[in-house]
C-alpha cells in the first residue's frame, strides 16, 4: 500500500506545481488538458450510459420475444397433447445467440391443480416467487469481472379475452399467474464492445489533444519568447539598465508592443541620462556613473533638493558658526564621515583656528619640521594640520591656491598634513581640503580624512560634500559680512574692544549662562592712571595711542571666551567667564604688572603707564552684571585713593569704607605711587 501511496503523492504534488507554473505554455497546455479530460469524461459517461441503456432495452425486447415464443409454444404443446416435449424445445431454444438461459416456472394454481413441479420448474429465488405472487414482471442485472447477465421474469397471467381460454383447463382465479418465463440474456460481449469503443474514443481524443497542443505551442512560442524578454528587460529597468534586446518579426499587436517597448526604453535612457547630466552641470561636478541610471539620477536629484533645503535653513541661522555646525551635520548624517575638522581664517591675524573638531585625536608623536637651514626641531601637532599652518594660514595649500586639495592626485600633495609624515600617527590616511571663498579670499577650510576602513564611504560622498560646501559658500559669505557689520557696530574703533552697546546687549545672556552652568563671572574695572596728563602734555593723538596699546595688552591677558569692553573714556571693563573664586584678582594683578612693564615708544621718548583695577565677582558681589560693575567701580576708586597702580577687590573696598576712607589697607598691587594732584579721580 505504501509503495502505491508515495508515488501518488509525488504525482499530485507535481501536478500542483505545474498548475501554479508561471509559464504561458504550461498554463495553456494544462488548461487544454483539463478541458479535454472533462470532455472525454463527459463523452465516456454519455457513451457508457447510452450503451447500457441500449443493451438493456435490446435485451429486454429480445427477452419479451423469447417469452412470447415460449408462451405460444407451450400453449400449442398443451393443445396438441405434447406438453411433455417442452424440455426438448426449451433446450434447443437456449442455443439462440445472446440467450444464456430460459426456464418455465410453475405457478401456484397449476401446483394446486396438477401437483408439485419438477425441480427445473420450481421457483428458486425470491424474485421468481415475487413475480408469481404479484403477477408483475421483474428484471435483474448481474455484473462481475468476467460476465454480465440480464434476467427478465415475465408472468403468465391468463385472461378470458385471450384467443385461447386458459380457464377452460386451469382452475385459477382472474389475475393469478399460472406461471412465469425466466429469460436470462448474456451481455458480456456487449460490454466488451463498449469498452473497445471507449478506448477508441480515448485514443482519438488523446491524438487530438497532442495535435492541438503542438499547434498551440508552435504558434505561441514567439509570443512567449517575447514575454520572457520583456520580463527580463523590465528587471533590467528596475536596476537602471534601459538597453533593449527585443526583436519580434510578426506584424500584429505583439509586434506593436515590442516596438513600443524598444522606443520607450530608448527614450527613458536618453531622458535619464540628459536629466543626470544637466543636474550635474548645474551642480558643477561629475559623478562616476553606475549601472543604475535611475538610482544615479535619484541620488543627484535628492542631493540637489538637500542642498536647496540646507540653503533655506542656513539663511535663518544666526552666525557663521551655526552654518559650520550645519556642515558638520551634513558630513556626519548624510555621508557618515568620522574624521573631519573645519578651520576658520582670522583675517586680522592670518591664523587658522579650529571651529569644528570632528573628534580628531591629538597626535601623540613628534613631527619633524624641516627648515631651510637643514636643521630640525620638534613640534607638537594638533589635529591634521601642522602648527605652522595654524599660525600662518598662507602656509595652507588650500588657502594659498584657493582650490581643492586632494591626496588622491598626489599622496604628499600637502607637506603640512601631519599624519602621513609622522610614523607614530595614523598611516595610510587619505584626505581632501575644501576651501570656502569669502570675498575673493579663503575664509574657511573643511578638511576630511579617511582610512582604509572608510575610504569607499567617504569617496562616494566626496562630490556631494564638495558641491554642497560650494553651494552654501555664498550664505557663509553673507553671514560673515553680517558678522563684520555687527561687530563694527559693537566695536570701539580706537581700541578694537567691544563698546558699551555690546555690553548692554550681551550682559543678560552672560548672566543666564552663568546661572545655568552654576559658574561665576569675574568683573574688572580698569582705569588708566593720570591719563588726563597724557592728553594735556602730549596731545590727544598720543593719548589715543596709549589707550590702544593698553587695550591690546588687556586683550592679550584674557582668554578668547572673555570679553573686554571700553566702558567710557579711559575705563575698560573685563568680564571673565567661568571664573574661579579669587581667580579674577589673580588675572587683574597679572594684567596690571604687564601694563606697568610695557614701554610705549613716543617721539618725545619712552613712556610707561599704570592702571588701577577694581575687582568684583558675580554672584558674590552682585546679582546682575550691572551690580558687579558698580561694585568693581567702587573698588577701582578705592585703588585710586590708595595710590593708584594697584588691584583692589570689592571685599577690600567694602572693608575700607567700613573703617573710614583714609584707612590704608594692604592691597594686591605692588609698586604703588603717591597720588598726583590734578588726576580726576583724586577728587573722589
Protein described:
The protein has 684 residues and is α+β, with helices and mostly antiparallel strands. It contains 19 helices and 18 strands. The strands form five sheets. Strands 6-5-11-10-9 form a five-stranded antiparallel β-sheet. Helix 18 (625-641) links the parallel strand 17 (611-618) and strand 18. Helix 7 runs parallel beside helix 8 (293-314). The protein is rod-shaped. It starts with a helix and ends in a 25-residue tail after the last helix.
Q: What does the main sheet amount to?
A: 5 strands, antiparallel
**Model regions low in confidence, pLDDT < 50 over at least 5 residues:** 1-5, 361-381, 420-424, 660-684
Counting copies of identical and different chains, the oligomeric state is single chain
Shape: rod-shaped
Radius of gyration: 60 Å
What's the arrangement of strands in the largest beta sheet?
A: 6-5-11-10-9
Strand content: 15-25%
Percentage of residues in helical conformation: 40-55%
Give the helix tally.
Answer: 19
Q: N-to-C terminal Cα separation, in Å?
A: 125 Å
The structure class reads alpha+beta
- Overall number of strands: 18
Mean pLDDT: 77
